[in-house]
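Quick sanity check, MutL C-terminal dimerisation domain-containing protein:
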Amino acid sequence: LAVKIHNILYPYRFTKKMIDSLQVLNQVDNKFIACLINTREDENEHADGNLLVLVDQHAAHERVRLEQLITESYGKQHEALGKKKLLASTLSPPLEIDVTEDQRRLLWCCHKSLENLGLELLFPKNNLSQILVGKVPLCFM
């Protein structure tokens, strides 16, 4: 309980500079990576400025895999515009879905947002009770 209270009262944040100074010492109990992080602003002051940090290997590995998945899932061309758009795979032929008038109207209102999620919906003018799914997120395939 005392540790929880201390963590709430004195939260600790690692800066990019601190992470860059990280020095791996060893593996501990096949579960953690022991590291030293320099907490001093002046790089020449190494004494009394190091913090011993234990990194949970499993959590770190999950984070690396998540970052890779996110990088691989989004198209590069949209990032330059400040937008993220999931990569999509074209369905040939498009998937036909019967919908009510209200459902069609709702999907029409949010179809641009759905496109950013990799879901392309087509709205045939000759059949108001149907929509076509032209693309789905690549991770669905």
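Posting the structure with no commentary besides this: The longest strand covers residues 88-98.
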